[in-house]
Amino acid sequence: MKVKGSESMDTALLKEKIQKKSKELGIDKIGFASAAPFDHLAQGMQESKELGHTTGFEHPILEERIYPEKIFDSPKTIISIALAYPTLPSQKPERVKGERRGAFARASWGEDYHFILSRRMEALIEYIKSEVNQEDVAFKPMVDTGELIDVRVAERAGIGFVGKNGLLVTKEFGSYVYLGELITNIEFPVDAPVDYGCGDCTRCVDFCPTNALLGNGKMNAQRCLSYQTQTKGFMPKEYRKKMGHVIYGCDICQQVCPYNKGKDFHLHPEMEPSVEETHPLLKPLVTISNKEFKERFGKMAGSWRGKKPLQRNAIIALANYRDKTAVPLLLKVMKEDMRPVMKGTAAWAVSEIISESSEELIHYFTEMLEKARKIEATTKEEADLVIELEEAIQTLHEKLPKNPEEGSYDD
Ligand code: SF4
Ligand code: SF4
User: Fold this and answer.
1) Is 110 helix (H, G, I), strand (E, B) or coil?
2) Which residue from 149, 192, 171, 179 is spatially nearest to 59, judged by alpha carbons?
3) What angle do CA 109, 121, 297 make, to 5 degrees?
4) Region of residue 329 (left: phi > 0; alpha: psi -120 to 50; beta: else)
5) pLDDT per residue as tens digits for the range 238-250
6) Ligand 2 site, residue 203, Cβ cutoff 6 A
7) Closest ligand 1 atom number to CA of residue 227
8) How far is CA 188 from CA 3, 29, 66, 72, 398, in A?
9) Nearest residue (CA) to ligand 2, atom 5
10) Which end of the chain is less crowded, N or C, counting CB atoms within 10 A of the terminal residue's CB?
11) Distance between CA atoms of 121 and 136, rounded to whole angstroms?
């Protein structure tokens, strides 16, 4: 389809008007890219999939991620937008005696960015439609759940460059930006890519705690803590300690990036974080009701997988704090929570927290685990639970004082 009369439309002038209007609409950066295929990405994406480096959260149809014409009739331009988000909370989380706090990664602070970006894009579409006043102009807005790869669109549109951490890095706001894009059948003059990049820097690759970044701009997303904190099953043990106290996402490869130094923008009221949401007390989160979870965290991007991954991660964070005050709660989870992942993670956490000097507690807890492992495992989660329980028993056993006879033999 060709937009009727688009030959006579002064798209350069319209672009200028859109750029100006975008500021009024609360868009921090805007760029225009051609809607040509992204076929240079196809091989790398196929390889990542074959190597098992993808997460399954990506749009499943590769062709639709590469060819805009597969998802939109007569695409001519993709308009990319960026909104800067805050990186420091406006107040410090209050210290509560006997309580530890977890944290959400910064991209999850405030209202879910999908809604914020969608509103901005709808307003932009309305504006363009009112300027063009033609019925056959069309738009398809997308935020990261869409088909196209936002960072690649934004890179082509001159918003920034894709760093070795796989994120879009801008000069003005660093990588602390949310991205969205609109495909349209209006053919606009396009912007040039930026002339800056990573250069010799490898800080994100060096500091990534799980070696998820491969150094060539690609990543093994399965190894990324951001992904691992969003899964619903047991978190593999190798990631538990590395997760620290961040119960959703991971900011390390952003925090170490030189382009992010000193960046903290508070430009959008709906992104302003409430510290009780971004740094919640961990113990209450472990047993939070569905209703309260929805009320407190339902608007945040970090709640999209429901409460279970966050509760599991809250238990891991308590173990990482070695929080002894959490042991009674964890024993309660072991006994009363019906979810195998919660039971097993609690068992692991207690076995980590209990110290060698608490011999009585070790015996008590080992007995409890011995009883608990005698379940008939009918699902994978239950089978995984049994393994977790056995491993926790082993950890506890290793904490007991060694029997001097053990390992010796009589002639
Ligand atoms: Fe590594 Fe964290 Fe960055 Fe993932 S988000 S690549 S785990 S530093
Ligand atoms: Fe690029 Fe260095 Fe930033 Fe990584 S930390 S994205 S290598 S500039």
Assistant:
1) coil
2) 149
3) 25
4) alpha
5) 999 999 999 999 9
6) yes
7) 4
8) 12, 17, 20, 16, 68
9) 257
10) C
11) 18
Q: Which ligand is nearest to the CA of 259?
A: 2
Half-sphere exposure of 121 (CA within 13 A, CB side): 23
C-alpha 124 – ligand 1 centre gap (Å): 33
The rounded Å distance from CA 289 to ligand 1 centre is: 30
Q: What share of the chain is helix, strand, coil (3-state, %, to 5)?
A: 45, 10, 45
CA 343 to CA 350: how far, in whole Å? 11
pTM of structure: 0.92
The residues near 82 (Cβ < 8 Å, ≥ 6 apart) are 27, 28, 29, 30, 154, 159, 160, 168, 170, 173, 177, 178, 179
**Among the bound ligands, the one closest to the CA of 219:** 1
Q: Which tens digit of pLDDT belongs to each residue from 164-182?
A: 999 999 999 999 999 999 9
Length of the chain: 411
CA distance 352 to 344: 12
